[in-house]
UniProtKB/TrEMBL annotation:
Name this protein carries in UniProt: V(D)J recombination-activating protein 2
GO molecular function: sequence-specific DNA binding; zinc ion binding
Pfam families registered for this protein in UniProt: RAG2, RAG2_PHD
Residues reported in the UniProt entry to bind Zn(2+) 1: C421, C425, C448, H455, H458, C461, H484
InterPro entries: Gal_Oxase/kelch_b-propeller, Kelch-typ_b-propeller, RAG2, RAG2_PHD, Znf_FYVE_PHD
Domain Recombination activating protein 2 PHD: 416-494
Species of provenance: Acipenser ruthenus (Sterlet sturgeon)
Family: Belongs to the RAG2 family.
Subunit description: Component of the RAG complex composed of core components rag1 and rag2.
Binding site for Zn(2+) 2: C481
Amino acid sequence: MSLHLVSVVNSTSLIHPGFSLMNFDGDVFLFGQKGWPKRACPTGVFNVRYKQGELKLRPVSFCNDSCYLPPLRCPAVTQLAPEKPESCETEQYFIHGGKTPNNELSDRLYIMSLESRGCNKKVTLQCVEKELVGDIPEARYGHTINMVYSHGKRACVLFGGRSYMPLGQRTTENWNSMTDCSPHVYLIDLDFGCCTSYTLQELTDGQSFHVSLSRKDSVYFLGGHSLASNSRPPRLFRLRVELLLGSPALSCEILPFGLSLTSAIVTRLGPDYEFVIVGGYTSESHKRFECNTVVLDDSGIHIMTRETPEWTGEIRQSKTWFGGSMGEGSVLMGVPAEGRQALSESNYFYIVKLRQEEELGQTCSQESTDQEQEDSVPLEDSEEFYFNREPDELQDDDVDDDTYNEEDEEDESQTGYWVKCCLRCQVDINTWVPNYSTELNKPAMIFCSKGEEGHWVHALCMDLSEDLLVCLSQENTKYFCMDHMEVVQGLQTPPPVKLLPVKHPPMKNQHRKVPVKLKMSPAKKSFIRRLFE
């Protein structure tokens, strides 16, 4: 067991307590960044690359049919892996609950999967929201979710967590006060989204930030914190779920030799059900420096003491720490930087290798020439920690062109989508709102073919209708903006035509009385005149 100091090359401030890790085919992804996503990475999900002591973040995009996924701290995350390696079933992650940057709690269930992988190793993910019906769990964080398999079926088990006080009990003084969620066990049907709540007499108190491990039809809960008693009792429960035809059967058993811990990290060693518990807390002011090996088999759970790494002075003196599993017996840990180093870096980051170098060389010797590959199952969530489930860590290539740099965010007001395209440009980065249905967080633009290089202009500034904009994007036709209308070739934007008001002359009255005119000869006129004289 060894401890190595690593440096984060870019965007150190995005990694903070409560983040989660996911692993798809050896690629590790960070989810739950600090703050709301910015335009350089609107998804808020990053590909984590570790090589030669350096950690880099690379933005990841979603496919078009994905839903919006807010950055969530301390959610419950579990992995749904194919039961057989040769199966064509897609690997998925289930994400439930968590805290948003506005400290709002989520009650939604998201499903994350790998959509495609490009030839340049760029990965596209898909995120969809699973609609839940029935006994829907309330919004919470600090809970756990696990997969169980029984009688050829599978389901999700959700337990624990914290939530805000009910609205009827919240006042101005205790508006942000938290309370333990009721100790109900929720069983979620993955096919139809049906949720069923179960009450077990062995589970009397709510708990959060505990450790949960699952194997086949059994889920084991270790430790946890109770707000009601403000304690971390050494608890160990075994929950067994039988997915019988008709109604599932749940039973709970209290086991001895539990552990007193919260916010611990769990990593999985190889394909067997062997786990290592690292870190966590034994009390509010005491970190847990011990390590334990946990083995699950048909006979139950076996907990053993394990050798600990040589913790550095920064780790021992810090009040908090956080991290997650990087797979194959490796753990990423962070501690707040204090003193002079705090001016340049907000956190120190370490990699804890729980397996011997010889073992790692035998299991991934082929990949170790260029990359380090690591396999693991991570663990639970915490206000100081969050960890994921069963990830394999694979370090990446040397291409750094797409490495995320938070400083690039400041340059968008002068370049890219936010340039002043013409003298009549109406797009401002501070006041812009979407105008077309195809716009999300950037204004729609169209290329003007004037000159050798051409230039981009905003579709809104060119007074283009949405139908015309879609037509131009689908056809291979040259376009010229208003400032270059002297160019005859291609499609031009017609200048706005001022229509003169239409004059409506008054209509003649068809029924107007007109004086009758008699036609008389001069002789008759003279006779009539003499007659009246």
